[in-house]
Fold this sequence. Notes:
- It is a lipid-anchor.
- By secondary structure, the protein is an alpha+beta fold.
- It folds into 2 domains: 370 residues, Outer membrane efflux proteins (OEP); 83 residues, Outer membrane efflux proteins (OEP), CATH 2.20.200.
- Helices cover 60% and strands 11% of the residues.
- The chain has 10 helices and 6 strands; from the N terminus they run αααβαβββααααββαα.
- A 4-stranded antiparallel β-sheet has the order 1-4-5-6, with no helix packed on it. The chain has a two-stranded antiparallel sheet with strand order 2-3.
- Strand 2 and strand 3 form a beta hairpin.
- The protein is elongated and about 140 Å long.
- The protein starts with 46 loop residues before the first helix and ends in a 6-residue tail after the last helix.
Amino acid sequence: MFTACVPSLVKKTANKEVPANFHNSQDTLPAFAGTQKDTMSSAQINWKEFFTDPYLNNLIEVGLENNQELNITLQEIQISQNEVRARKGEYLPYIGLQAGGGIEKAAKYTRDGAVEENLIIRENEAFPDPLPDYQIGAYATWEVDVWNKLHNAKKASVFRYLSSVEGKNFMVTHLIAEIANSYYELLALDNQLEIIHQNINIQSNALRIVKLQKQAARATELAVQRFEAEVAKTKSLQFDIQQQIVETENRINFLVGRYPQPIERNSAAFTDLVPKHIQTGIPSAMLDNRPDIKQAELDLKAAELDIKVAKARFYPSLGISASLGYQAFNAKYLLKTPQSLLYSLAGDITAPLINRNAIKADYNSANAMQVQAVYNYERTVLNAYIEVANKVSRINNLEKSYDLVAHQVEALTKSIDISNGLFRNARADYMEVLLTQRDALESKFELIETKKKQMNALVNIYQALGGGWQ
């Protein structure tokens, strides 16, 4: 009968199917990306083994200990844990002790007053006026969890606690990736600043030569001014790079939870860095490695239990209460047994009958939240899959791009010496020298930028696969 009174709702289930691999065709699958049979994933590697730079590892360790946002999340985990304890206590009996005393004076022309006026107790002692009251005892109340309403509420809070743990793990992967990306950006800026210094020396030497040629009537003042302008432009770039270095250092200091200070690093080894061999594993393994997917799944389980809790509110609830103690109007009689002994035992069954709108509204809201949780889970899985697919492709294309840019830098570096030699022998115009130097500087910058993108892509694919939190 009670089941028939519960509104019927359509429950939505999550689609947990993912493609067999991260590509539409095996023909486009890079060698490092993993195949359908490759179940190994680089996400299972601890970050201390994945990153080999000791300076970077030290920054990550400090960040995991001091980052304020991460520590805030740890307190949220504690809050969720306390919620589990509170829910567990709701389906256990409440037992307490109480003691008290009071005094009461009844009006004479009332029922109680008339009784006191005419009542004489043993030993001809008059009824006390006013009447004291002393009591001491224990009491207990217990809601019998017939429909598992309270147990399901406790299980839902457990899933939310576990969800908060996965939220912390996801933040750990994000923090590690952010520190690593900022660190590699700092190394790239250092190398770009060094390239600028080298280019300033090259351009200064060219300026000195063109001034000598002007004295020998082999060059004009226009050539001298153009070379001086190019030197000034290149020198101005170094201050922009220096500002970026300061801001990047301070961003890293913020991530590791400390005030601005120099960042220890080995910038000279940046150009020699080679991206690691990445194994993506099969997409279904991503469901076990990515904390945000596991968090969404736990939230979904909690939402499903919330529906059961809301549904149980339509059914009757059984409550039991009991008390045992002593009560007397005189303290000397308080502990006399059985005269001053009192006890009680009662049970009650209550069920909603009329005007159940609030319960229906909660039930409908719980169902809507469960549907939201399903869509959130499916969206999280889809987003994770696309992230990995994009980053796998990016690593492959950046590797090809870096080789071509490196070849361009090598050719333009040689062309600087060639153009300078031709200019000294009056076989090349000064504009050819300027443009060659400018192209060489831009290509070297692009090479460093491509190397930084390679390292960032490596960090991002590691994060996208769910690595770093283990």
